[in-house]
Specification:
about 200 residues, mainly alpha, Rna Polymerase Sigma Factor, Chain: A, Arc Repressor Mutant, subunit A, 10 helices, elongated
Length: about 200
């Protein structure tokens, strides 16, 4: 199944305009009451970015497709348990994170890290990160553990702040910062060893 395909037979053109413009929290409340239209809209909003996040962690497109379906099934089944103490997006990424980490613990894939799209963030590391070429960064990132790749991915690709990342990966903000610091030190070290940075 292509990750751009609908989760089931709801087409975006058939969706009520009030549903497609609704807030995430409203949609999830509707999902909790069994509203398939609201679920279809939530899927349309997040399936692409969540698929990419999972893919960057496990490096296996087919398995990432399967995990995407499991993640959204967990969203459907667990919507009534959402306590509104975090953003819906953060809650969904947390589900995705644990599904991906669980898969990694079982399979330990070794395929290469895909291209990483860098966005602007107001964090000190951004200036350094933007100076690296994608091929060199990709090689350096391959030396990181999934938990360190995850914080890089969530920060630099998905634009999450440290507090949001902490909620997704289930650890204190201080731990996120130390993982980020460690990951950047490793990457800098690999790039320096390759004479790519001074």
């Amino acid at each position: 199944m292509n990750h751009n395909a609908a989760f089931y037979d709801i087409k975006i053109v058939e969706m009520d305009k009030s549903i497609s413009s609704a807030s995430d929290i409203y949609l999830l409340r509707r999902v909790a009451s069994g509203d398939e239209l609201a679920f279809g809209e939530l899927y349309q909003r997040y399936h692409g970015s969540i698929y990419n996040y999972v893919l960057r962690l496990i490096h296996e497109p087919k398995e990432a497709e399967d995990l995407l379906q499991e993640i959204f099934l967990a969203v459907w089944r667990g919507a009534h348990r959402f306590r509104e103490q975090a953003q819906v997006k953060t809650w969904m990424y947390r589900i995705a994170h644990y599904q991906a980490i669980s898969w990694l613990r079982k399979h330990r894939p070794v395929t290469p890290f895909d291209d990483m799209t860098v966005i602007n963030l107001e964090v000190p590391e951004q200036v350094t990160f933007e100076t690296w070429q994608s091929d060199e960064v990709r090689k350096a990132i391959n030396h990181l553990s999934p938990k360190h790749r995850a914080v890089l991915e969530l920060a630099f690709v998905h634009g999450m702040a440290y507090g949001e990342i902490a909620q997704v990966v289930g650890c204190p903000v201080g731990t996120v910062k130390s993982r980020m610091s460690y990951a950047l030190r490793v990457i800098n070290g690999k790039l320096k060893a390759a004479d790519f940075v001074s």
